[in-house]
Records
---
Amino acid sequence: MDEKTGEARPTGDCILLFGKNPRDKFPQASVKAKVDYGGGQEPDAESFDDPLVLIPDKVKEWVKKLFPKVWTGQAIQEKRYPIFHLM
C-alpha cells in the first residue's frame, strides 16, 4: 500500500510470481535450463521468462518435447537418458 496515495501496489515478489511481464521490471530474473545429450551434441537450452507460477508447467512441456519416444514392440515408452540441468 502506498502510504501517500493509499493505492495498492504489488511488491517485487508479487510481480515475479504473477506479473504479466515480470522481466520488464527484473530483466535478470529468468529460469534457464538445458539438456545435455553428451557425445559432442549441442545441448538444447531454453530460457523461461514467464511469471514464476507458470514456469514449472512450461519446463515440463519443454522437456517432454525433447525426450524421444521409442517403440519397444509392445508400447511406446519414454527413453530417459539425457541429463537435464537448471542453470
Note: The chain has three helices and five strands.
---
Amino acid sequence: MKIGIFGGTFDPPHLAHLILASEAYNQLDLSRVLWVLTPNPPHKGGISAASLDDRLDMLSIAIADNSVFEISRVEIDRPAPHFAADTMRMLADEFTQDELIYLMGGDSLRDLPTWERPGEFLDNCHGLGVMRRPGDTVNLSEINSTLPDIAQKINFVEAPLLEISASRIRRNIRAGKPFRYYVPDGVYNLILDRGLYLR
C-alpha cells in the first residue's frame, strides 16, 4: 500500500487541510492518509493555541466521514521533541511492507535542509508529496546540493489556491469575525461549545 503521512498541529483543522489531503490521496494514488497530530511542534517553540485533547477531538470530527483518513498516535504517545526524522523511522518500522509518502507544502520542502537530521528523515520516506500552490516555485537544484537524490523522491501535488490558514481562523475568532465556513460543521460547533481561541 501507499500511505500518505500528513503531519501538523491542526490548530484548528480546516477545509484547506481536508482539500489538500484529498488531492494528495487522488493524485498520488494513495491507499490511505495518516494524519499525524503533533502535540508540541519544535519549529513553533512547542506552543499550540488549543490543548492536545481539543485538537484531537476536532481532528477526529473533521475526518470522521472519510474512511481513507485516519489519525496516527505516533507523536501523541511519545514524549517531545517530535522530530519528523524520528516519526518516519517509527512509521517505517510499523509499516514495513508499505510505501510511505510524506506530504508537505512547498515552503517545508525549501526548509527541509534545516530540519533535524533531514537525511535520516528522507531515508525513511519512499516519496515526498509536495503540495504546490499556483505560482509556487522551488529551487530543486539548490536543495539537491544539500540533500543529494531528493529530486527523484518528489511528486508535486497540484492544489487549489486556498488562503485559509489556522492562524487566520484563530485571529478571526479572537476578533469576533466570521469563521463559520473555514472549518467543517462539527469543528465549528466544538469551537463554539468549548470557547476555543477566544484569547
Note: The radius of gyration is 17 Å.
---
Amino acid sequence: MAAPTATPRVTPAGDRLRDGDQTLITFASDSNIELFEMAATPPPIDGGDMIETTTFHNSTRRTKWPRRLIEDGNGQFRCAYDPVAKTRIEAIINTNTEITVTFNDGSTWAFWGALIRFTPQEAQEGQMPEAIVEFGITNTDSAFAEQDPVVVEVAGS
C-alpha cells in the first residue's frame, strides 16, 4: 500500500467568470416564457456521501470510498414575471425538456430536466414583484435514455 504524497497546485489554464450578470435559464419547451432572470443558482454537482467501508480489521482509522454515480441537484433563479406566464408555466411544469444555463461569457450547460416549482414572493407596495423558479435535472431524454449534461465553452474560457 502506498502512503499519499503531496501534489502541488497548478495554475488553471481556463479563465473564470468575472461577473454573474447575465446568467440566463432557457426551457426549450418555451424559450421565451415571460420570466426575467435577476439572480441564478446553477444546479450543483454532488458525488453523494461516502460509502462506509470500515470493518473490524481496521486498526486506527475509519475508511470510506467514493460513490460511482454523480447526482445533479436542483437549480433555481429569482425573477420578475408577467402574470400572463402562469398559463405557460402550467403548460411546461413537470415536463421533461432541454434546459440551458447560459453564462455571461457565452458558455453553456445544457441538460434534460424540468421546471418543478414557481413560487411568487410577497408583493409589496413600491417593490417589483418577484418569484423563485426551481428546476431539476432528469438526465433522461425523451426516449428515456440516460444523457449526461453538455458543457460548451467559449474561446478563452
Note: Helices lie at 85-92.
